[in-house]
Amino acid sequence: MAIAPVEPIVATGDATGRVCLRRWDPGALVAGPQRHHGAVCAMEFLADGKRLVIPYCHGDDLRLFRFEKMEELVPKTFGILEPADEFAKMSNRAVDPKQLDLVVAPGVAFDSVCGRLGHGRAYYDRLLRRLRPGVPVVALAFECQIFPSVPMDRHDMYLDKIITEDHIYERSASGDSESPSSCL
Fold first, then answer.
1. Domain boundaries, the chain
2. pTM exceeding 0.90
3. E strands within the chain?
4. Which CATH class is domain 98-179?
5. Which of 79, 83, 107, 169 lies in disulfide reach of 162, CB 3.0 to 4.6 Å?
6. Alpha-carbon distances of 18 from 89, 142, 161, 164, 181, rounded to whole Å
7. How many CB atoms lie within 10 A of CB 140?
């Protein structure tokens, strides 16, 4: 499944500053990191009939786990919620990156041309190279994380969209960013 062309990705924020993706195809297979504050969004995604995949660290690689309930997750690498060992070992819950319909990528800082500065280990850059062509990769960020530019190396992957509480930054087909659009 892909994002429906008539259903744009929309971001909304609440009083706590949490920013969530609110609409995309029912049943979409979505991957994204889960920190403690992401638990509410994860449960909303599942309640809406979406399938959620949680990445987790395995050596220098990210593996993907089909998430079903919060009790399956425990704080692990970098304090990020990941599947408990007994769940991570379940082969029927492993997901190939080529199955993903949308990826929500984390980052420390971003720029208006959809560059992303991660935590320096290139976990997500390696994962993004394994996606099938055309899978949207977005980041949820706060406007204070957007800078004129962020350092990008040859191995760094640009995002398709960055969604903040004020704007949606989109990367054009040429690789340049379009003017940010308001999401309010």
1. 98-179
2. no
3. 11-13, 19-21, 29-31, 51-58, 61-67, 73-75, 81-83, 102-104, 109-111, 116-117, 137-140, 146-147, 161-163, 167-170, 181-182
4. alpha beta
5. 169
6. 31, 9, 17, 10, 19
7. 23
